[in-house]
Each structure stands twice: as C-alpha cells, then as structure tokens.
Design goal:
Elements: E1 9-15, E2 21-28, H1 33-63, E3 72-74, H2 76-98, H3 104-112, H4 115-119, E4 130-137, E5 144-152, H5 153-172, H6 175-192, E6 193-195, H7 198-218, H8 221-228, E7 234-238, H9 241-244, E8 251-255, H10 257-276, H11 282-305, H12 312-330, H13 333-338, H14 343-362
Parallel strand pairs: 3-6
Antiparallel strand pairs: 1-2, 4-5, 7-8
C-alpha cells in the first residue's frame, strides 16, 4: 500500500576496448513542477472517484434483495485477521518476485474478473434484455441441468469492453489500461465490501495502519512488490507525461488498498448518515474531506523527503479522527459506535420471536 515510488535512477555502465570500465554515471530524471503537480493531482482525483460513487452505490447495495448483489460483510474477527493474512500474502509475493517467477497468470485472473464491476457503471436507461445459457443432459424425467447461467445485455457489453482492455493490458502493460482495471476494482470493493459497525472499521484500519507502516518503513517488501507486480493492484500516473506524452514511464503510484480500505469505512459512515434519517450527510462529507486531507499530507511528506510513504499512516488517523470529533461535537458518539447494519434485520426477528412467545402464553 505504499503511496508513491521514488523517482527511478538509470545507471549507465560502459567499457572501453581494453575491457576496463570507462563510464559509471548515474542519470536521474527530475520531474518538472508542472508534471509533478499533474501526476499527484490525477492520483487524488482517481482515488476520490471510486470512494465517492462506491459509497453512494453501497447504500443501494445494502438494500438490494438480489442475492447476486448482496454485499460481503466484514466482521470484527475478519478485521482482526486481515492484517495477518495480508502480511503473509505480501511476503509471499515478495518471495515470488525475488525468485523471478512470471506473473502473467495472476494478471489474466485479475483482468477477466473486472466485468462485474464495470456492469454497475451503466445507467438504468440502457436497454437491457435477459438471456439464459442452458445445457442439459438426458431426456424426459432423467434430464439433468449441467449449466444454467443467466446474463443480460449489460453483461455482454462489459464482457466485450473488458476483453478488449484486458488484451490491451496483457500485450502492452499500458498505464491507462492498468488504471481502468484499478478504478473498476476499487469501485467494486467500496460498493460490495461492507463493515458491520464502526468498531469493526476501527479494528481493521488500526491493524492495517501497523501493517502498512511496518512493511514500508521496516522493510523493502512493500515497495519491491508494488514495483514488480505486473497486475492492476495500483493506480499510476506519469510525472513525465508533458515531456513524453502517452509513452511516459516515470510513474507516481497509489495502491488500491489505500483507496478501498478507507473507502469502505467512509461508505459505512454514509450508511450511518442514512440510518439517522436527518436528511444530512455530515459524517460522510467529514470523512471524505478527511481522506482528501490525509492523501494530500501523504503526497506532501513523500515529495519533501523523496521516499515512498505508507499512505495509511496519514489516512487512518484522518478518516477515523475527523468523524469522531464531529460525533463528539454533535453528541452522537455513542450512537455512532452502537450503529449496527444488521440491527434492522434483527429487529423483525426479535418482534416475531416475542410475538410467538406471547401467543404461547395466551394458549
């Protein structure tokens, strides 16, 4: 989840006819202030888009009765385990690249899985027809279904688009194709990964705060994986775009984890705002502004010290601290920490159970 990689250096080595070393110089690209501002500004905008729209869509997703659109709820136990699992995965990837193994298979898996995220971008006004792919074997009473897959026009369009972008990415590894997949992954993650309460969110963000700081400042594992992993796990933008155009190659980068992890917490606060039924989005906007502040602070520190920064070091205190201060001022801190997304589902069950017990007493 390292924020931005430092500017790469190109070492030039040459020998003369006698085989002795004739040149050992270091050429370092220095980005212009305009190019640097464009790169950082673009990363900030790309990070904000999936958080904002993913949070809005998470409200609709949480109310959906369609099992296919049902969100994945992260419990307190999941949140506590996540930093450990993430650390094992990260170190495994580090070893993976240290022995120079290829990552094409992993890239292909990531590329073909993006269509569900892209399908949610289409507006409801797009004509949509339902299709069904059905394979059976046998006949009569012995007929048995082998494949029964339902899809629609939007799925077909997304399949074509994602296939074209996927082939483009696999062949060229172009940064624009990488960002298209990265944005789709981030939007899908913020929309479909739901924290069940604020306490769980604090556990998750706190654990990943330690995880990010350790793997960036304590070792070179995070930066090595971020640079080596040929898959859309990060958003990138070239600092030399103004000089080299679309073929630019000196990138600033932002890990998708630095978008999705704070994003699902911000989305939770938006759903909390909705549950208050006060027709306001105070906690959502305060956490969203906190994310902008934290990301801006990350970029400032990185640019000042010329070293990759763990973005969660700045994002976690901002995204958690700002809403907590707002809740303290409004006197809603207890209510915020008591908010439980499953409570609305539990209440009808409790009412049914109490109703059944009253009937038994009457009998």
């Amino acid at each position: 989840m390292a924020e931005v990689e430092p500017v790469p250096e190109a070492v030039l080595n040459a020998t003369d006819s006698n085989g002795t070393e004739a040149l050992n110089a270091t050429a370092k690209f220095v980005a212009t202030p305009e190019g640097t501002a464009l790169a950082y500004g673009s990363l900030v905008v790309m990070a904000l888009l999936p958080i904002f729209f993913g949070a809005l869509r998470s409200v609709t997703c949480s109310k959906s009765k369609n099992s296919a659109d049902a969100p994945e709820t992260i419990t307190s136990r999941d949140a506590a385990r996540f930093p450990i699992i993430a650390s094992c995965t990260l170190f495994g990837l580090y070893l993976f690249f240290k022995v120079s193994l290829d990552s094409v298979v992993l890239t292909l898996i990531n590329s073909v899985s993006v269509s569900p995220a892209m399908a949610r971008i289409f507006p409801p006004s797009v004509p949509n027809k339902q299709y069904q792919l059905l394979f059976t074997q046998g006949s009569g009473e012995s007929k048995e279904e082998i494949v029964n897959y339902e899809f629609d026009t939007k799925n077909l369009i997304c399949l074509v688009i994602s296939s074209v972008v996927g082939v483009w990415y696999l062949l060229k590894k172009h940064w624009i194709a990488n960002n298209l997949f990265g944005l789709a992954f981030a939007l899908n993650g913020v929309e479909l990964l739901h924290l069940n309460n604020v306490s769980t969110g604090c556990i998750l963000l706190g654990g990943l705060f330690v995880y990010d700081v350790f793997w960036v400042f304590g070792t070179n594992v995070m930066v090595t994986v971020a640079k080596s992993f040929e898959a859309p796990i990060k958003l990138v933008f070239p600092q030399d775009l103004l000089e080299k155009g679309l073929e630019a190659s000196n990138f600033a980068m932002l890990g998708l984890g630095d978008i999705v992890i704070p994003g699902i917490f911000i989305a939770l606060l938006l759903r909390f705002d909705v549950s208050l039924k006060k027709n306001s989005r105070t906690y959502f906007y305060s956490s969203f502004l906190a994310y902008i502040f934290g990301l801006g602070l990350t970029i400032f520190v990185m640019h000042t010290f010329k070293h990759a920064q763990p973005a969660l070091l700045y994002l976690v205190p901002a995204c958690v601290g700002f809403p907590v201060v707002v809740a303290l001022v409004k006197g809603e801190l207890t209510e915020m920490f008591r908010y439980e997304e499953s409570s609305e589902e539990a209440e009808p069950k409790e009412e049914m159970e109490s109703g059944e017990s009253e009937k038994k007493k009457d009998q």
